[in-house]
What does this fold into?
Amino acid sequence: MAFRKILRDKEESSVNGTVYIVLAFTLGAIGVHNFYARFWIRGVVQFLLSLSAPFMLFFPLIFTSMWAEVELLFQNRDKEGRLFRGSRSVIWMLRLLSIVMLCLGLLSIETIDFDTVLQMANEVSDVEKVLQVEEL
It folds into this structure.
């Protein structure tokens, strides 16, 4: 078993690590990167979860996005266990860039102003009341 692993480490995968990371960063929530690396079951699960997201308040999409980010950071091998081909330095630079982008995205999230939400809800109910009166 260990001998096979040593032999697989010498083999080069047909999956390019740079392409895998770019796919995981851009289309990872729907599982495209897993289809590219021939992880069919993972890809189908991510795709089905992302399709069900609008019916479940988009929570599955958040989950699959986090799942794709973890795979982007830690996945180095294809389904057969062979290392991705491509420049290791470029792969690590893209991984660091994804972390920076994630942090910037999290920092840009503003807190919810509940007063504005309540004001919008009151405006909607006022419009509904006006429409009901107009119907009479």
Summary: The CA atoms of residues 89 and 95 lie 10 Å apart. The chain is about 70% helix and 5% strand. The mean pLDDT is 85. Strands lie at 12-16, 83-85.
